[in-house]
Design goal:
Layout: E1 15-20, E2 23-28, E3 34-39, E4 42-43, E5 61-62, E6 68-70, E7 73-76, E8 79-82, E9 92-94, E10 104-108, E11 112-119, E12 129-138, E13 141-150, E14 156-158, E15 161-162, E16 165-166, E17 177-179, E18 182-188, E19 194-199, E20 211-212, E21 219-225, E22 235-240, E23 247-252, E24 258-262, E25 276-281, H1 287-290, E26 295-297, E27 302-311
Antiparallel strand pairs: 1-2, 2-3, 3-4, 5-15, 6-9, 7-8, 10-11, 11-12, 12-13, 13-27, 14-26, 16-25, 17-20, 17-22, 18-19, 18-21, 21-24, 22-23, 23-27, 24-25
């Protein structure tokens, strides 16, 4: 019998590192997400080890839907569909289908790389999609450009998000100043599913101007973006140190009309409330059921969008 030798591989698969102008990022094969990002030696993304699973969806790409779908059930094109319940404790389908699939390297340069993933049709989502991501670093920070093509024969519903955890080293979450352009937030039930929306003006969730997070427990979807904080390039969310000596922003183009902010309170161990997940989303939670801001991809249609992370002074 022929001996077969199988090399031991990191849990996150192949590791692809890009660097330029003092900026460095690590993208991984499993899920195609961002494992680490630093600039001039400062880690602005709360990284995880190459042989760790990304706790709390750290750095993952969330598609073809972000966040939760109630009971994993929805209707599209006259069909009733049932997704696997990937968050059984809340009886929901959480964060899409590509975050654990293998991505393959298409090309790589010192400062950029292109990766691709082919997602087959499956029970609950019977439409094949092709994903491609270009990751790039440079003097202006990290930039990611995504394109998703419906390679099937029928229209399909689609939503997209990413899930980086941001931090300013040495600054506790409570002490960070947070600015979010959302003028409304979703109200949630005990399963963290939306049941309505309210304006944030003047209340405890009003972060339209920078404000200390303090003891606030956030796992909130913000929408109705302030037009004064949106331009042709899109919008952004910023974290600032108490003395304003350091900051980090995550920006996203106009495809993203929602921002989810999560202070990590349900994470265990050292990751508990250690950093802030800031997620640009194209649609709100449970969008496949509500229809709110769901993108419909026609056969052969390609959707494109760009986002990035920019360190401040």
């Amino acid at each position: 019998m022929e001996n077969v030798t199988t090399a031991v591989r990191p849990l996150s698969g192949a590791q692809w590192t890009i660097s330029a102008d003092g900026h460095e990022a690590v993208v991984v094969e499993v899920g195609g997400g961002l494992r680490a990002y630093r600039a001039k030696g400062v880690d602005y993304v709360d990284a995880y080890g190459e042989d760790e699973l990304p706790a709390g969806a750290a750095g993952q790409i969330l598609a073809p839907w972000p966040n939760r779908i109630r009971d994993g059930r929805y209707t599209f094109g006259g069909r009733s569909l049932q997704l696997p319940l990937t968050e059984p404790e809340r009886h929901t389908a959480l964060h899409g289908l590509v975050n654990w699939l293998p991505w393959r390297l298409v090309s790589q340069r010192s400062d950029s790389l292109v990766i691709r993933c082919e997602m087959p049709a499956q029970l609950g989502y019977p439409w094949p999609l092709e994903f491609q991501a270009e990751w790039r670093v440079g003097a202006d920070g990290l930039r990611a450009e995504h394109q998703v093509t419906n390679v099937g024969r029928e229209p399909c519903p689609f939503g997209f998000s990413v899930h980086p955890y941001l931090q300013l080293p040495g600054v506790a979450v409570d002490d960070l100043l947070l600015r979010v352009p959302g003028r409304s937030r979703l109200l949630l039930d005990g399963r963290l599913l939306p049941i309505g929306a309210v304006k944030v003006a003047g209340g405890e969730y009003d972060f339209t101007t920078p404000r200390r997070i303090g003891p606030a427990v956030l796992d909130v979807a913000f929408g109705d973006l302030d037009p004064d904080q949106v331009d042709e390039n899109g919008s952004s969310v910023t974290l600032v140190s108490p003395d304003s000596s350091a900051s980090v922003s995550i920006w996203a183009d106009p495809s993203f009309g929602w921002w989810q902010v999560f202070t990590g309170d349900t994470l265990s161990g050292e990751r508990h409330r250690r950093s802030v997940a800031v997620e640009p989303m194209t649609c709100p939670p449970d969008a496949f059921r509500s229809g709110k801001d769901v993108i419909v991809l026609e056969p052969g249609q390609t959707w494109r969008a760009v986002w990035g992370i920019r360190p401040g002074a």
